[in-house]
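Entry: Glutamate dehydrogenase
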Amino acid sequence: LRRNPGENEFHQAVREVLDSLGPVVAKHPEYADAAVIRRLCEPERQIIFRVPWVDDSGTVQINRGFRVEFNSALGPYKGGLRFHPSVYLGIVKFLGFEQIFKNSLTGMPIGGGKGGSDFSPRDRSDGEVMRFCQAFMTELYRHIGEYTDVPAGDIGVGGREIGYLFGQYKRITNRYESGVLTGKGLAWGGSQVRTEATGYGTVFFVEEMLKVRGDSFEGKKVVVSGSGNVAIYAVEKVQQLGGTVVACSDSNGYLVDEKGIDLELLKEVKLTRRARISAYADERPGVRYVEDGSVWELPCDIALPCATQNELNGRDAAALIANGCAIVAEGANMPCTPDAVRLFADAGVLFAPGKAANAGGVATSALEMQQNASRDSWSFEHTERRLADIMHGIHDRCLETADVYGKPGNYLAGANIAGFIQVADAMLALGVI
Ligand code: NDP
């Protein structure tokens, strides 16, 4: 705490992992001897930089850019960029720390990192977003590369932003280095299914949770928070598997559509028009729009928080439990507060932590890197099958590890321990570096 003052989200993420590691260190004292945990908590490198750019009115704007290169024991640093006004070092470090274990769980050769800026693309013109991205990359380019550090998208960074970032990287370096960024467009080195991967992957994970209990999505009522990249494709996959998503949200409010979300309309509003979800409610009769309420007040069988960190607190958890919710899976990073997670455990609600449940995005990014390295591109069906297999593998690894360490059925402990062991073993093998 003294070493990283004021970085609340980072402390929260570290504490959650360390809480699970007691049985591991008891069994493997060599991790403690080599100070593996203390080394893991200290990023290998942190870069903070000025991003000056000119807005449409000719005014110079200054934002702050970050890239935290956390751990490269398993491969090049890998993790998204977040553009949101709330971004500061504590957020980037929490995300980078989580990313180490998530990437390890995928079984792919990728280390952990994260970055971003306190820039908000919302209400900015395309030209402004482009100039900001160019200014951001004008500094970032010297720190990244196919074998060094490979950023991708996150909140506020989608296909448009990745395009502008890649264009500037290409211009500055004079290299068509496809593997330097993931989440690229299909015409210029992107992978099928990357856009859908995080949302689809979260739902594949829940499908496995249901399957081992002899159940399925058929007939289940699902509530999703957020209405961005992760949320939209979580809705899509739930519907394909026979569930009904009755609600989604944005930071202004939530909508309830008891007939089931009209995916085409949601995509039109969010992806084409870049409008608020209240516009969806305006256009579909019978839809209720609630400003400033909590979407977790709604009764459901399965809850998928897909918006942002700490969006589901103890009170929300109590409401979900009282309404009979049986499964909570984190599509977002750390959306559930520690007291919410404790309440779920006490009530026997199955809980899938983000580092396992939302790992499909980064796993598909690693598949994009594979395709770039072999100058190949795979079909949608093949890539989706690979994603489903990876998510099933992560699910099984979490359950098996939880069993081995005396926490049967505890996905949180299983994810933390399995993710940790692989990185820790690599760090031991590479020596004290
Ligand atoms: P988007 O920017 O596409 O969408 C974010 C959604 O969350 C929007 O609906 C946004 O609403 C809402 N939101 C953001 N901040 C807040 C807030 N403070 N309070 C309430 N709602 C908020 O981001 P993504 O869908 O890509 O990311 C969502 C989550 O998933 C994040 O936690 C991210 O780290 C995580 N994630 C994303 C991956 C990816 O591949 N994209 C991979 C793994 C995890 P509004 O428009 O009102 O801001």
